[in-house]
Amino acid sequence: DAKTTQPPSMDCAEGRAANLPCNHSTISGNEYVYWYRQIHSQGPQYIIHGLKNNETNEMASLIITEDRKSSTLILPHATLRDTAVYYCIVRSRGSEKLVFGKGTKLTVNP
Amino acid sequence: NAGVMQNPRHLVRRRGQEARLRCSPMKGHSHVYWYRQLPEEGLKFMVYLQKENIIDESGMPKERFSAEFPKEGPSILRIQQVVRGDSAAYFCASSFQGRETQYFGPGTRLLVL
Question: Is the omega angle on the peptide bond into residue A110 within 30 degrees of 0, that is, cis?
Fold first, then answer.
């Protein structure tokens, strides 16, 4: 599975959009980009995933660049409860396990 | 619409005792994964099981750790003769099929005294 690079920490004001970047320059054609978050040592929570196209669900939007070497997770209106560590994971179709990096610690400030 | 369930949520053991952690997957899921998170570290894959089969145990320590997922009942992660270094949060995840989205449980926090 390709390696990902994320900033260690970010801050965001409550009510504003949080844009979390992820670099995955070695991603290959059959690898998906997954996003999970972990709120204060709870179990990781699935957010969204995508292959090529941008994706949106009730939690977030995922924007993947055309060359697929990077992506951005967007929380459109961050709340204090969105404070968490966000993990960007690249996973091949043939791989069952998730490889977690250090993630980005997002702090949403009032 | 219950999610992945794990019990106990907290477990305290003395060195040398056995720890048994249980995981009930989401309804309809037959694939289970175990991950371990040591203090101040990221999650690390341990083992992947389907009903009655271990598919990938590449992340399991060679000794004292075992996992099973019987035909009936929850998946169990068993740690024999626990040591202080086993203190960690153990998370279970499940998926409908082997390469689909994994959903995690709340974890079991193991403390070895």
Answer: no
| Partner B contacted by A69 (CB < 8 A) | no
Q: What are the beta bridge partners of residue B32? A: B49, B94
Which amino acid belongs to residue B46? M
Confidence of residue A29 (pLDDT cuts 50, 70, 90): confident
The number of beta carbons lying within 10 Å of the beta carbon of residue B111 is: 14
Tell me: pLDDT of B1 over 60: no
CB contact under 8 A, B56 and A96: yes
A8 touches chain B (CB under 8 A): no
Q: Do A42 and B107 touch (CB under 8 A)?
A: yes
- Strand ranges inside chain A, DSSP E: 9-13, 18-23, 31-38, 45-50, 55-56, 61-64, 70-75, 84-92, 104-109
Considering CB atoms only, which of A41, A44, A103 is closest to B104? A44
Looking from the CA of B64 toward its CB, the CA atoms found within 13 Å total 13
Residues of chain A found within 8 Å of residue B103, distances taken between Cβ atoms: 46
Chain B residues 7-26 within an 8 A CB cutoff of chain A: none
Amino acid identity for residue A40 in this structure = H
Predicted confidence (pLDDT) per residue in A46-91, tens digit: 999 999 989 999 999 999 999 999 999 999 999 999 999 999 999 8
Q: Does A67 touch chain B (CB under 8 A)?
A: no
Geometric angle at alpha carbon B64, from B61 and B67, rounded to 5°: 75
